[in-house]
Amino acid sequence: MNTDTYIFNKQGYDKNGYNKDGYNKYGYDKDGYDKNGYNKEGYNKISIIAYNRSFCYNKEGYDKNGYDIEGYNKQGYNKNGYNEYGYDEDEDGYDEDGYDINGYNIDGYNILGYNIYGYDSDGYDKYGYDEDGYDEGGYDENGYDEDGN
Q1: Which of 16, 17, 22 lies closest to 2 in space, CA to CA?
Q2: How far is CA 75 from CA 72, 82, 96, 139, in A?
Q3: Where are the domains of the chain?
Q4: For 34-78, what is each residue's pLDDT tens digit?
Q5: How far is CA 76 from CA 61, 64, 91, 95, 133, in A?
Q6: DSSP state of 88
Q7: CA 45, CA 53: separation in Å to the nearest integer?
Q8: What angle do CA 85, 86, 91 make, to 5 degrees?
Q9: How far apart are the first and last CA of the chain?
Q10: How many CB atoms lie within 10 A of CB 119?
C-alpha cells in the first residue's frame, strides 16, 4: 500500500477508515478479510475465489452447513447420519445395513443369520444341530436320539 498519497489521523486511520496496513478498526481490509484471510463469517478468501460459496470452509474447517471437506459434522457424522465407520448417530450403534460394531443386527443375528452363540433363529448351528447336539429330527451327529436309539 502506498502511504505517500494517504493522510492518517492521530489514531492512524485514513479518510476511508483504514490504517497503514490496510485494515479498519475491526481488523478487516477493504475486501472484508482479516490478517489471516478470513471474513466475518469465518470463511477464507482463497476458498471463495477458488470455489463458489457452497464450497467455502471456515476457520474450524466446516462449510456453511457445518460439514468438513470429508462431509462430516463436528460430531463425526455425515449428512445421512453415519460416521466414517458406517454407524448411525442415534447412538443405537447400527450401521446403514442394520448391524452393530460386532456385526449383529437389532435381533442379535449376524449377516449369516447366527447369534453370538452360533445359533440361528430356529436354534440350530451352522451344522444343523441345536445346543443339546440334536438336529431338527431329534438325532445327534451319530444318528442317535435322546434315548440313545
Answers
A1: 22
A2: 8, 10, 17, 53
A3: 112-149
A4: 887 888 877 776 654 444 455 577 777 787 778 887 888 888 888
A5: 13, 16, 12, 14, 46
A6: B
A7: 10
A8: 100
A9: 102
A10: 17
